[in-house]
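Same chain as my last thread, 377 residues:
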Amino acid sequence: MSVAATEAATTPEAQPDPDASIHAALAASWDAYKTRFVQEDGRVIDFNDNGVSTSEGQAYGLLRAVWMDDFATFQRILDWTDSNLNANIRADHLHAWKWGPRDDGSWGVYDRTSATDADEWIALALIEADKRWPEADYHARIASLLDDIWTRQSLEVAGRRYLLGGDWPKTAGPIRINPSYYLPSAYRLFSRTDPAHPWMTLVDTSYEVFAACRSRTGLPTNWCLLDPHTGRLTISTDLLDRSSDFGYDAFRVLWNLAADYVEHGDPRSLEALESMDWLRRYWVLRKEIPATITADGIPLVSHEYIGMYGAWLPALALVDPVEAQRVYKAKLLTQYHNGLWGNPNDYYAQNWTWFGIHLYRQFLRTVRPPGDQSMPD
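reply #2:
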């Protein structure tokens, strides 16, 4: 039975605490996700891409496991990740980004390039795990990974530090960077764990990127261009180049901003979200959000994407909690069945819907105005 059906069948007097209801849905979703997407050996499978595994998928699994206090699954995923995406694959502590069927019929890594977002999420998961399970002692692993992220996946340009998409060439330009890879809330934790590197400078750079890498609608773009000599940030104006769309990469910026406000209260995150009000206004008018929107605000597709709604939910709650509750009920609860959200084979949607609801729950518990007892039902 879906969460919506369960709650509808409960009398008002007997209704459980809605916060507990959200937590129960997150727990049930994690159990369903493990059953469907995580093999016994810890490999996370992307069924929509020929059954491949990516460093991103492994990272998402690690973070969900630690947030659900599931040490056994965390360690299984970590062991597979280390054995298959790093050991004997790379000379550093970063992770090859793609593993799956090769041209010769064997299975293994077929793209050794690292993906910075995945390495950041793995580092974040390890830091959270080290706090939750100190006896596991992840200290050395965390230190090595953070050092390689800083030295191999970031670049100083004109006195500013910028995060790159991976261990890519740093001299050719312009360099494509991904705004959704910038995680200011994580850099605050990295700075406490790794004082050898000035991670807080990346917090400031994150907000510079969020401000510069936006289309005419004010929405973040999937990709952005960095001049490696001047540090100038621009977006592509090529009509055939979809990098300036708001889509499957860019929507994560909304979650990143919400996380920095909910967890650390940086007022710049709220200001940035308020400047991206185009999305909320479009929703209020049409009660839908296209999965891809061009730089001019033109829907590129007619379908929606539940992962986008999930990632947007806590961000919307910060600027318009009433509409956030409507999105939660209309677009998320209605697509929750047997522990999975929307398309049961879409691991990306499962993760971003889960992350969004997880942060939304944190928002409801910590950020809502004093005396406001309203909760989603």
